Structures are given as C-alpha cells and as structure tokens.
Write a sequence for this structure.
C-alpha cells in the first residue's frame, strides 16, 4: 500500500527541488569576467558629479552643454556653466563692459535652459580674465570639478593648421581633471 501524498508536503518538495536546481544553475553559469580596465572605466564614469562647461553662446558650445547633460544625467551631476570675458591687457580687469556682460548673461541663460530640460542642477559663472583658457582651468580647480566638456568649432571654421583653438589648447594643458572635446563632423557642420 502506497502512502498518501499530502498537498502541503508536495508543495514543499517542489519548492526545495526548484530552489536546488536554481542554485546549481547559478553556480554553473558565472557572470562573464570583466577586464579590470573596463571595470575602472565604468566605475570612473559614475564618479562624475560636477561638470564644467565653458560656453560663449554659439551652437558648438551649446552642443557641449547637451553632451555634458547626457554624460552627467545618470549620476545626477551638477553642471557649472562658465563664460569668461577676455579683457585685453591694455584695459583694467574691472572696466565696465555692459555689452559683453549682456552677451554673457544671454549665453548662460540659453545654456541653462538646456540643462533645465534635463532637470539637472545648474550654476552660472561669469569671470573676467586676460586668457579664457587659463581662467577656465582655474575655475575647474577651484570648484573641484570631475570633468570639463568643451564644444569646439567645426573643422572648416578653425584657423588653418590649428587642430583646436588657443583656448581649448590651454584648457587641455592646464586642466586638473578629465576633458571631453565635442566637435561636429565636417559633413554635419
């Protein structure tokens, strides 16, 4: 005579067997091994919490703002928009420049509207300096940013023989953090 199978006992037995099978499957199918360099790069991108974007209100710098937003979106990064007014050495740094200051504010407002679309925190900075590139590197050090995103001119707009402009070159040489350069391909410009 066969013992009677109780429904509750059958459920426990099936649960036990199912758990045992799933643990064995998990043990026999380990995740793919990720190279250490790839793991560091992935972890490094998630460390980007503060991004500096220099802007002058031109389309290529506004593309840099959009790229910065996309790079910092998952990390909920803060975006710092910087406009540097280059004051010639023949004039004092504090000289009133109402037209240039108005252009700076308009450029920062347009760039801030791009950041607002991504629902990210934005800070606007207007600085006066003799050389914009050195001042941007100084701002990056002061704010302890993790990344600078530069939108640079399309190829046909660049000066002959120069790969990037004087300001971008100075930023690359003096930046205390990672620098990402964005430019349009020749066909898209």
């Amino acid at each position: 005579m066969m013992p009677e199978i109780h429904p509750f006992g059958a459920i426990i037995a099936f649960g036990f067997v199912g758990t045992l099978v799933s643990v064995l499957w998990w043990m026999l199918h380990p995740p793919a091994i990720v190279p250490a360099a790839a793991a560091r790069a992935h972890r490094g991108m998630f460390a980007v919490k503060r991004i500096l974007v220099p802007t002058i209100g031109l389309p290529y710098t506004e593309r840099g703002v959009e790229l910065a937003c996309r790079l910092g979106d998952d990390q909920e990064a803060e975006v710092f928009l910087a406009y540097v007014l280059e004051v010639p050495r023949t004039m004092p740094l504090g000289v009133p420049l109402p037209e240039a200051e108005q252009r700076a504010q308009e450029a920062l407002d347009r760039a801030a509207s791009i950041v607002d679309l991504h629902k990210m925190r934005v800070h606007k900075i207007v600085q006066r300096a003799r050389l914009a590139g050195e001042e941007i590197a100084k701002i990056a050090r002061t704010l302890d940013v993790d990344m600078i995103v530069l939108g640079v001119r399309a190829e046909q707009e660049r000066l002959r023989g120069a790969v990037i402009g004087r300001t971008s070159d100075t930023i690359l040489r003096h930046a205390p953090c990672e620098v990402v350069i964005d430019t349009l391909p020749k066909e898209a410009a």
Remarks:
- The chain has one domain: 37-182.
- Confidence is low (pLDDT under 50) at residues 156-162.
